[in-house]
Structures are given as C-alpha cells and as structure tokens.
Amino acid sequence: MSLVDTLREHGSGMLADLTFAIVWVTGVSLFFEFVDGPQWAYYMFMLAGVVAYFGFFWSLDMAREQR
Fold first, then answer.
1. Where do the TM regions start and end (predicted)?
2. How far is CA 26 from each of CA 20, 52, 63, rounded to the nearest angstrom?
3. Cα-based distances in Å from 12 to 16, 43, 48, 57
4. Inside any domain, residue 31
5. Is residue 8 part of a domain?
6. This model's pTM is above 0.85
7. Residue 26: which domain range?
8. Is residue 50 part of a domain?
C-alpha cells in the first residue's frame, strides 16, 4: 500500500486528527503563555489531550449512529 493509497483511504480522518492536535496544542500553549502555570500542569494538560481526543471522536461516532 503506497502513501497515496493510504491518503485516499484515510485522508479525511487524518486531517481531522491533525486538526484536533493542532487546535489542542495551540490552545494549551496559549493558555499557559498567559497563566504561567507550573511545568507539570502543562504536561498534564497535554496528556489530557489524548483523553479528550478519544472522548471527542467516540461521542462523534455515537452521534452519527443515532442519526
């Protein structure tokens, strides 16, 4: 399977993943730019992005199933 085939098959999903990651990291970085919180809290917020990612896309799948 080539890169082009992979992008055709998963292109929109990969774009959604990338968009979520960029928005999350940018939001957390901007928040901690103004708050000047401790470094451990910054890393905890970044780790929470993994949980938020799976929670968001799981709830999106559930909403699509109910339609």
1. 12-34, 40-60
2. 10, 14, 27
3. 6, 28, 23, 13
4. yes
5. no
6. no
7. 17-66
8. yes
